[in-house]
Amino acid sequence: MPERLITPLIVIVLILGSLLALRSTNSSSVTPVPVSSVAALVPDRVPLVTGDEPIAEIFTRAGCAVCHSVPGIPGADGRVGPPLLLGTTGPARLADPAYRGHAKTVHDYVIESVIEPGVFVVPGYPAGTMPTWYGAKLSALALEKIASYLERQGVTAAQ
Ligand code: HEC
Questions:
Q1: Bridge-partner residues for 153, per DSSP?
Q2: Which atom of ligand 1 is nearest to the CA of 120?
Q3: What is the pTM of this model?
Q4: Ligand 1 centroid vs 31 CA: distance in angstroms?
Q5: What residue's CA is closest to ligand 1, atom 13?
Q6: pLDDT tens for each residue of 61-92
Q7: Which atom in ligand 1 lies closest to the alpha carbon of residue 138?
Q8: Tens of pLDDT along 20-62?
């Protein structure tokens, strides 16, 4: 191998090496621990959810799974809030005379419920319990995916 090629080769190897080292320290320091208890649900402990994650990870990362059961999401068996069966419950909420929100579709109702949970409190469940800071943690894409997933879940079956 000609000598003039060796120096650039060493430089490339060094750069690759430090990139790899950077990647591994990065991922170990930012890998979020999935939120597994209501006590851990403080904004500082909940990572940003970009929406690029697999759907199950969106629900577990954000901590929804701690308080809600969600069909098809492993480990989502929380009992603090209602089971998220919006395909069935969504139309009932919109038709509820006590509903004062702005949503006209189940999709928008889900987004409203996540961003502004105080707009409508599901009867039989505690007010002021669902976190109010999800607007700062969930990207628009994550919200869209959550709404699209939940509006398809019904009492009879997860479709
Ligand atoms: C600390 C517990 C808690 C967490 C975490 C939580 N919720 Fe809730 N959620 C509740 C409670 C309690 C209610 C019912 C009272 C109310 O309407 O505010 C509720 C209501 C809802 C509703 C309305 C359901 C219906 O049947 O009309 C939706 C939708 C919802 N949550 C979605 C989510 C999503 C998505 C996440 C995660 C991004 C999440 N929640 C995280 C406690 C929680």
A1: 158
A2: 17
A3: 0.81
A4: 25
A5: 81
A6: 999 999 999 999 999 999 999 999 999 999 99
A7: 38
A8: 555 554 444 444 556 778 877 888 889 999 999 999 999 999 9
